[in-house]
Amino acid sequence: MNLMQLRKTISLDDYASFAHLTRAVQELRAEAKMLVPRLKGRRVLMVNSTAQGGGVAEMIPMQILLLRELGLNANWAVIGSDKPEFFKLTKRLHNLIHGEGDPHLSAADKALYDEVSRQNADQLRPHLKPEDVLITHDPQPLGAGALLRKEIKLRAVWRCHIGLDEHPAATRAAWMFLKPYAEPFDHAVFSAPEYIPDFLAGRATLIHPAIDPLSHKNRELHPHKLAGILSNSGMTESDAPVLTSPFPAKVQRLQPDGSFGPANQPDEIGLLYRPVITQVSRWDRLKGFRPLMDGFARFKGCPSGSPNHARHNRRREIVRLVLAGPDPQSIKDDPEGREVLEELRQYYLTLPAACQRDIVLLTLPMESRKHNALMVNALQRCSVVVAQNSLREGFGLTATEAMWKAVPVLGTSACGLRQQIRDGVDGRLVNDPNNPDEIASVLDEMLQRPQELERCGRNAQLRVHSEFLIFTQLSRWLRLLAKVVSC
Ligand code: UDP
Asked: Which of 39, 297, 332, 414 has its CA 20 to 30 A from that of 1?
């Protein structure tokens, strides 16, 4: 278990000094003035299982820092285990909740989950007192949280970031497994009402995930800064002078021979010149990378015969698909990542040469959170469309991040994406992310109409502004914490 050290780099005053954020900060402060005194003397400890990679690790640090600034004693702990089987099991539970995988969970699975939960509870216990509030994120630390809730009698909230709006056998099996661990909790938090299992109804709250508008992932990048990041990370080749030094770890690109090499080989990606469609995600089958490749290939392969479509045909000719994800070695609680990347690599090698040229698969180094965030920011801003072709999606911060940058998103009907994107208003949704024809046709419609893209992008940005910024999220958390300690 690691108690994470966080360094404050930005204050609420800094946010408030941006005119478009002033009101949101004022509202949060007003809420805190009323609610924080009710939490006096209590420590709030957030616990998850990874310090980086994925949406949860993305959100926690700034939440903690801002809660501290608002007067709360807030901390972040990351649990671990020397048993890789534990993370395999929790990944399986993650997939099962999303309706995928073999629903048979054995007594040995339960014994393993109990054993690691016990170890983690023992490590967390010295940091907690009965008046404290424990917030555990997702299934990995749930069991430890349940033990601590029973043993210390503190208040405990389970923040579940995953869910499905249907109830197939797989999902039911995962909930059967998790139910005894979730039950002792005082309250649960979900990202969509559809995700709340029956046994938690009445003590579950909806809080949408949110982004930090001034983080390295989301802050504004002027063209020279953006070009500098592309150059520093090896995504462009340039002799032009840039402000900052090359990043120590560079982006790697899948080469036609199946190896990973420099991102500007075998040719320049064209991020600053070509229309680019990008999907940035963890390497996870449910993110729909492979059907997205197929949909893109199909879109490229069917030019319109009409001379009126000369411009569009040219766009189709030069457009590229960029698929980016973390260097898989860096994600501890995601044992599937390497496997999925390998599947995509194998699949890429079967594609015709022309397709290989236009599909760019990148792995982004994670050694530096800042550099990784800047790379993602730059990639999203270079994109004419950001795709998130998820088969299932708890929420999908990658969509939120693109929307904030006024980049229209090609999403799917996965529940988390539906919470954010209104089809035709803020972006587009494909009904079936496994259907390459549908993906190709929606891509075709989107790229044909640049004005529509611009309209959707602007709408999307406004939607994030009103619904999915960190200030709204923290107000909701404060309300919930005050309620939980008053019961
Ligand atoms: N992400 C990243 N680097 C990568 C891939 C993903 O920083 O190489 C970030 C991405 O920008 C987003 C988060 O990881 O902030 C993914 O969150 P999301 O909610 O989209 O999906 P999750 O991974 O939680 O299923």
From this structure: 39
Task: Quote the ligand 1 centre to 216 CA distance (angstroms).
Answer: 14
Spatial distance between the Cα atoms of 291 and 297, rounded to a whole number of angstroms? 10
Tokens of 66: 């801002």
Residues 19-38: tens digit of each pLDDT? 999 999 999 999 999 999 99
Ordered structural domains, the chain, with CATH: 2-210+469-486 (3.40.50.2000), 223-467 (3.40.50.2000)
* pLDDT tens digits, one per residue of 44-84: 999 999 988 778 998 999 999 999 999 999 999 999 999 99
* Per-residue pLDDT at 487: 85
Q: Ligand 1 centre from 326 Cα, in Å?
A: 9
Give the rounded percent of residues in the chain with a pLDDT score beyond 90.
92
| Ligand 1 pocket, mutate which of 398, 404, 417 (most atoms under 8 A from CB) | 398
Read off the pLDDT of residues 260-285 as tens digits, 9 standing for 90 and up: 999 999 999 999 999 999 999 999 99
pTM value is 0.95
Pocket residue to mutate for ligand 1, from 56, 282, 464, most atoms within 8 A of Cβ: 282
pLDDT(292) > 70 = yes
In angstroms, the CA 294 to CA 237 distance is 28
Which residues line ligand 1 at a C-beta cut-off of 6 Å?
54-55, 58, 217, 280-282, 324-326, 364, 372, 376, 395-398, 401
Residue whose CA is at the smallest distance from ligand 1 atom 17 = 55
Alpha helices in 70-212 (DSSP H): 84-97, 107-124, 142-152, 169-182
248: burial class by Cβ within 10 Å (0-12, 13-18, 19+)?
exposed
End-to-end CA distance of the chain: 29
Distances (CA, A) of 293 to 227, 277, 355, 373: 26, 11, 9, 24
Asked whether 296 and 334 are in contact (CB, 8 A), the reply is: no
How buried is 172 (Cβ within 10 angstroms: 0-12 exposed, 13-18 middle, 19+ buried)?
middle
Q: How far apart are CA 101 and CA 254, in angstroms?
A: 29
Q: What phi and psi, each to the nearest 5 degrees, are found at residue 379?
A: -60, -45
